[in-house]
Design goal:
single chain, 419 residues, eight-stranded mixed β-sheet, 11 helices, 20 strands
């Protein structure tokens, strides 16, 4: 859980306040958020980031606008009608993404607060202790953002009536409005459109899912059929020359699938298994690095179209009454630009960073803009000689949901999930 204030004590002046790029880049690759960024499932706006930088927005409560163009109806105009009078108006609409601050202050013992042996073996230098503190805080931050993104994608928004809300192993204090908001990406989680929410056997409530409603091959085929018949198709991800979707399932759901589907059904046609068993190297365009973890387990490619990956961050179900359903999981199929991300500090993806560099015609700008969405400050607590590393991030996530059409590029597939 993020802290909202520094540890108590008499503080000296802030010693430094600088972007932290490399550590974030590395940590992203350890969580599903890194996979979403690399695959192109996260939409960013270089224009909005530059605008925020130019206006000096470094405080909480920043808002960015993301424009979109609604689909034009295919209905034609009569032969004798005036083309000008009956012309379809091309409209430009937009939605907003709010960004707010998360803080992870980490206090490192100093002076007589730890033994000489600990000092010799663990805190060998100030830089080493700083690295330990920031690594721990960075992992907590990226895990927080991963949970936020998954909650946005699946429409996870339980009613805030209980004192606590359980999401995986995380218990959120629902009475703490800020804590609740940060695990929703600081943006309202909209209900998923009915055409983008499909349950087995036409079940209409996550709470009604039973052992008869597990993830099966038949249900996967149902998902594919809904993709193909939609008037607003989900835009696929272009990866390694192939158009695919990514289906995030929970390990309990993955167990159901793997024990009911033959191994031959999950193929890797046209792909080398070694290419996708590992993780995306966040520092290289389109590259995969098998030596780093992604926070997901690649199960296989279904019908050459759906890459199925397992991660524990797939949220529980939510009943129509707003209660958490711990015997179901909201699996989610994701396409391109399914959720928007904004931070006035900079970009998550290297592609957005390059656009920023091109916009201001500064070759170094791309490197400076790449993943500097985290800042770190250093303070010393006088008296007990502790050093506090204050890691901060201003960011926001929002699932793309136009006002006049279904959710963009997501398909939520709740199933029963319990071992």
């Amino acid at each position: 859980m993020a802290n909202s204030s520094l540890p108590t004590g008499s503080t000296l002046a802030l010693q430094s306040w600088a972007p932290l790029t490399g550590a974030l880049t590395q940590t992203l690759g350890e969580f599903p958020l890194g996979a979403l960024v690399k695959l192109g499932c996260i939409q960013e706006s270089a224009e909005e980031i530059l605008k925020a930088k130019q206006n000096g927005y470094t405080a909480s409560g920043v808002t960015a606008n993301f424009p979109y163009i609604p689909k034009i109806s295919p209905t034609g105009i009569g032969y004798l009608d005036s083309g000008v009078a009956q012309a379809r108006n091309l409209t430009f609409e937009s939605y907003t993404v709010n960004a707010n601050m998360i803080r992870y202050p980490v206090s490192v013992p100093g002076g007589d607060n730890f033994t000489a042996l600990q000092a010799a073996q663990i805190f060998q230098s100030q830089e080493f202790s700083k690295k330990i503190a920031l690594d721990a805080a960075m992992k907590a931050l990226v895990e927080n953002q991963t949970i936020s993104v998954m909650n946005q994608l699946v429409g996870w928004s339980p009613t805030q009536t209980n004192s606590s809300i359980v999401n995986n192993e995380l218990t959120i204090n629902a009475n703490d409005t800020f804590a609740y908001s940060q695990f929703q990406g600081f943006n309202t989680v909209d209900a998923v459109d009915s055409t983008r929410l499909i349950r087995p056997a036409s079940i209409t409530d996550d709470a009604s899912l039973t052992t008869s409603h597990r993830l099966t091959a038949t249900f996967l085929e149902t998902a594919l059929a809904n993709l193909d018949r939609s008037a607003y198709p989900i835009e696929p991800i272009s990866f390694n020359g192939q158009n695919i979707y990514v289906l995030f399932v929970h390990p309990e759901t993955a167990f159901d699938l793997q024990t009911t589907v033959s191994a031959s059904a999950l193929t890797f046609t046209n792909w080398e298994l070694a290419q996708i068993q590992g993780n995306y190297d966040m520092k290289k365009e389109g590259a995969l690095n098998p030596k780093t973890a992604m926070g997901v387990n690649v199960l296989g490619l279904w019908r050459n179209r759906i890459l199925i990956v397992s991660t524990r961050y797939v949220p529980y179900g939510v009943s129509n009454a707003g209660a958490v359903v711990t015997t179901s999981r909201r699996n989610v199929l994701v396409g391109k630009n399914a959720v928007s991300f904004f931070s006035p500090y900079g970009a998550l993806s290297d592609a957005t960073a390059r656009l920023m560099g091109d916009a201001i015609r500064n070759p170094k700008a791309a490197a400076d803009a790449y993943a500097p969405t985290v800042r770190v400050g250093v303070q010393e607590i006088d008296g007990n000689m502790n050093t506090v590393y204050d890691l901060r991030c201003i960011s926001g996530f929002k699932r793309i949901k136009p006002s006049n059409r279904p959710d963009t590029n997501v398909l939520v597939l709740p199933t029963y999930a319990s071992l």
